[in-house]
Amino acid sequence: MNSPRNHISPKFTNDPWANAHGQLVVIRRVSTKGVVARPSGPNNWGHERDLYPANVEEALGRFENAVAPVYRLLLEGSVLNATQRHLWSHWLLCQFGRTPAILLSIAGLPEQVISHLDLDPTANLFSSTDEAIISTIRGIIDFAGNRRLVPYLVLRDWVIYRAAKGTSFIKGDNPVIIQGALIDDGTRIIYPLSPNLCFEAGILGVFPPSQLQIEHTITAEQVRDINKCIAHCAEREVICTVDANNPELLADVDANLGGSGDFLRVGDFSKWPF
Fold first, then answer.
1. What are phi and psi of 199, to 5 degrees?
2. For position 84, what pLDDT does the model report?
């Protein structure tokens, strides 16, 4: 039996965008004429109905309970220890792999490989699309705990960007952005933590990385660049604070929202913050 409401972006990760009245703003494209902004709340955004089986939802809930204190540490500006770094890296993989866009992309990989290699279509591992999606959903927890992938996150340098005064970050319905392949040195892993803070894992300087964790205040234009990237890599919608809902942001979201159709390799937005 499936849970009726499955959060692809858990409430505790949405809470920072809400004001004292529990309101945030959702910006979504409703037609070819542009985007619209509507009020919502942390628990009402970032979920899909009947997406996960109950056992997957329960496992994700336990994982969220474990990572929530680490999330708070990052919001407070604390430097994570080795154990916390590993847990946070597992969380990034989990948050990346649990959205509908990524699940569909992963489920379609066998078919893509077969088509690119010009193989016999009957060589597909799954007899139907539904079977492929079910298999992918069951593998969310395994993906998050993949010991072969975690080093590509935990060993990178980590930067917490602080938004310039008077600016704020948005958050998309694909909250974790992985630009490029994890194995590549130049790959960026971006995850907005709050309107004021945005996490990025990369390599500062030259290889190998030093597993640094630093904070860096960026300019208003750099915040705008990251927000364009977030909108570009979102599937359908983004959220912002009530105060950040302005014509400039709406225009930027309208110009970039859903620009990436390939959610596993969204590397065509190449402008670096610094």
1. -85, 140
2. 95
Q: How far is CA 230 from CA 61, 107, 156, 208, in A?
A: 25, 23, 21, 27
pLDDT > 70? residue 210: yes
Tokens of 60: 């994700």
β-strands 157-162, 213-217 pairing: parallel
| pLDDT of the residue at 260 | 66
Please state, in angstroms and rounded to a whole number, the distance separating the CA atoms of residues 268 and 274.
17
Tokens linked to 132: 């492929």
pLDDT at 209: 66
Lowest-confidence region among 45-49, 79-83, 163-167: 45-49
Q: Given a cut of 70, is residue 186 above it in pLDDT?
A: yes
Which pair of tokens denotes residue 178? 């992985």
Instruction: Determine the pLDDT at residue 63.
Output: 86
Please state at what angle helix 247-256 crosses helix 220-233, rounded to 10 degrees. 40
pLDDT for the residue 226 = 96
The CB density around residue 33, as the number of other CB atoms within 10 Å, is 8
pLDDT at residue 1, as a whole number: 43
